[in-house]
Amino acid sequence: MLTFYFFLILSGFLLGMAFINILKKFSLGHNLLIPKGIPLVGGIGIGLSFILVSLSVFFIFIYKGLSKEIVGIILSSSIMLVFGIFDDWRELSIWAKFLMQIIATCLLVLFGVRTQIVYIGDTLNIIITFIWILGITNAFNHLDVMDGVASGVAIIVGIAFFAISILNSDIRSTILSLILIGAILSFFLDNCPPAKIYMGNSGSHLLGFILAAIALIISYAPLERKVALLSPLLILGLPIFDTTFLVFIRLINKSLPFKKSNYHLVFRLSALGYSKKKTLFIMLILSLFFCLCGIAASQVSNHLGVGIIVFAALVSLVIGIKMSKRV
Questions:
Q1: Which of 8, 188, 197, 240 is 20 to 30 A from 62 via CA?
Q2: CA 319 to CA 268: how far, in whole Å?
């Protein structure tokens, strides 16, 4: 099985490297998608690698082939990628971006990818699914403001989902997580400070969308351990915290919540004198902290799980208060 896992990561990585190198040369040769002299094609390479390797693996290796949910994730991710490329080429308005995300999320729901919370009914589950997908998709877009941050966090989150999938014998999520990790790694190597390539909106939106979708198809725990259902909130805690912090600071400074600004957490760390590499390291450590809390909460009793959630929330509050004073 370890050989198969290595094959999945290697396939995503090698195909991602191939696509990224081809796209980089094409971008530089035709002067396309180069807003700051650096090719904006990393997200396209990640997306193509994830989609093609996922299709191949589920067709060739998995008994019964593609399930309805996997088809939904691959199709909706393809739509997100196409719209994202257009967004990088001719930047769309905020409302056009939301419409794009809503269309892709509708497709996910139609293919059965949604929350399955018992006792609240289909309508509420669908509403929660839309809030979750749109929220995480845009949280990753907000996170992509410094070299290596969004891709590095996505790798750690992917590893956390892989760990939970293994613990719960969930082969579908295991495969998707490992392929995505490999594809992102092919980009991360060139995106570390100083970045030689960017992922663009096509990449940041796509990563958030795929990770949010994977989170919905994982089986976290038996019904008696209800707190485990909150594990994905912890695992994706850094993007959620960063976006919450950003919106809060914008509001107290009387700015529009979605207006571009320098209030991001990474810029607060930079203001403290940290270099890009040190800032990236701190962000990845924070992401690892949230992910470890999420994995632990998925495996312990309800009481211990609540304690872990409270602890993570207090750490977030302390960091938020300290960082807000630097604005």
A1: 188
A2: 11
